[in-house]
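Incident log, entry 3
Record: folate gamma-glutamyl hydrolase (308 residues)
Problem: checksum mismatch between cached and fresh output.
Input:
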Amino acid sequence: CNCSKCIKCVKSSSTSSSCAFTYKSVTSPCFLGVLAQENLPGDQFARGSSYIAASYVKYLEGAGARVVPIRINRTEEEYVNIFYSINGIKMALHLTYLNPLNVNPRSPLQANDAGDYFPIWGTCQGFQQLSVLTANKNLLTLTDTKAVALPLTLTPAAQSSRLFRSFPKDLLQSLAEENITSNFHSWSLSLQNYSRNAKLKRFYKILSTNNDGKKEFISTMEAYRYPFYAVQWHPEKSPFEWIDKPGMVHSSSAVRASFYTASFFISEAMKNHHHFSSPLEEERALIYNFSPVFRGIHAVFVQNYYFD
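Fresh output:
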């Protein structure tokens, strides 16, 4: 089968020219999966076992994607089905949570090697997990980067990178000169640890770094051969989160940066032909089946989606 998503064909290695997975939505060509994670301890609003911050959903929807929640503790068949129905994955996971896509017969890495262009975007803890999975060890180090807004120190590779080369020059200048990237992390991948690990150096190109005053750490990177992207900062917070804390920035430049990163990721995701098998399957999978819970305008996350 020439279809890139047919689960039956993937499992059976069928060479048939016919495929049951023929439905393609004409109203929304891009479906992005967002990985849920276990509920935070002490979350008085928590329902079920896992959540997705609504700002991650709005971030992608605001640039033209439809969002599919990838819930924890699903079956292997369900994860396979989701993988071949969506066009890309956004990660923002805690390191203790196992990436469910690891159970798939074809991981995103293997899919790309086979010519199936499948992008991944990691934000904050998603950045950290991608580094751990690539290095096959935890090389993260503590940094003083909790609730601080920083400019990016762009590397020479940034302007020619896939991620940044389509950004307007004035926006790149703002990213480099203004404190508009929101950082809310205690752990970082230091430039020193990256440089000492051959696997990371071969896999990821550094696009920007930052410094907490003591340690230089990587803040943006993209894979050389794969459509994998990672930012240690939070582009989604500027337009969609409102907690009154240092590090929160709502300037027009910060909001533009949010849109351009999301728009870029969607343009990458539209390069594959994964799709749902039917309109009914599509409708059942979408985030619209769940209602966000308002947690307070000054909560860490204004709204969360909760899942059983």
